[in-house]
From TrEMBL:
It is found in: Periplasm. Its main location: periplasm. It comes from Acetobacter malorum DSM 14337. This is Methylamine dehydrogenase light chain. Pathway: One-carbon metabolism; methylamine degradation; formaldehyde from methylamine: step 1/1. InterPro entries: Amine_DH_Ltc, MADH/AADH_L_sf, MADH/AADH_Ltc_C_dom, MeN_DH_Ltc. Residues 87-197 form the Methylamine/Aralkylamine dehydrogenase light chain C-terminal domain. Residues 1-10 have a biased composition (Polar residues). Residues 12-21 have a biased composition (Basic and acidic residues).
Length: 200
């Protein structure tokens, strides 16, 4: 085979490769010109901007808010019916978590506090006890209920908590007894609620 034949064959291969590249180049060029002729740079930039904005808004969709609300729910299981409805913010309401075993008028609504007697009354030296679940921290606490005595009963609505209430022959857990013994006056006014310690 002569050198001229080899040159002719390699030239033919180069022409074929050139035609293949040329065909591919022409196809891509036509496609690019078609896209460019039927769309504008502004339209393309607008679509890209819309997708970027949509991507940034995905974390704020209602689905995300719903899942966040589910994680914000209390993680403690209430052990009793009272605890399931108990709250930790308003000590003048009967469903305040410390009042699970109280029976009487709330000193917090009668001029005193959750654990302090109103002016003009004195706390009884004895008390009854209950175990109340705090939904705020998921702990149960031993609570002592002490009557405040010496003035007529407060006119606020009465709260009756019956958790752990025992008959009168178990007086330490009976909330029906007037606990004004030893105060000098057996006139009941209201009841306080003092945390004695952790019951867990």
């Amino acid at each position: 085979m002569s050198q001229s034949d080899v040159s002719a064959r390699s030239g033919t291969r180069a022409e074929k490769d050139g035609m293949a590249h040329s065909l591919l180049d022409r196809t891509i060029e036509r496609l690019t010109r078609h896209v460019a002729g039927h769309s504008s740079r502004r339209g393309l930039l607008g679509r890209v901007g819309a997708w970027v904005t949509f991507g940034a808004l995905i974390p704020t969709l209602p689905v995300e808010r719903a899942s966040a609300a589910q994680t914000a729910k209390p993680k403690f299981k209430a052990p009793t019916p009272f605890a399931a409805d108990a709250q930790t913010t308003d000590p003048t309401a009967c469903n305040y978590w410390r009042y699970c075993a109280i029976d009487g008028f709330l000193c917090a609504s009668c001029g005193g506090g959750v654990h302090s007697c109103p002016p003009g009354t004195s706390p009884s030296p004895t008390s009854w006890i209950g175990t109340c679940f705090n939904p705020g921290d998921g702990q149960s606490y031993l609570v002592a209920y002490r009557d405040c005595c010496g003035q007529d009963a407060c006119s606020q609505p009465m709260c009756v908590g019956t958790e752990g209430d025992q008959p009168s022959y178990r007086p330490q857990a009976n909330n029906d007894i007037i606990w004004c013994f030893g105060t000098g006056a057996l006139i009941y006014n209201c009841s306080t609620s003092v945390i004695v310690g952790n019951a867990s």
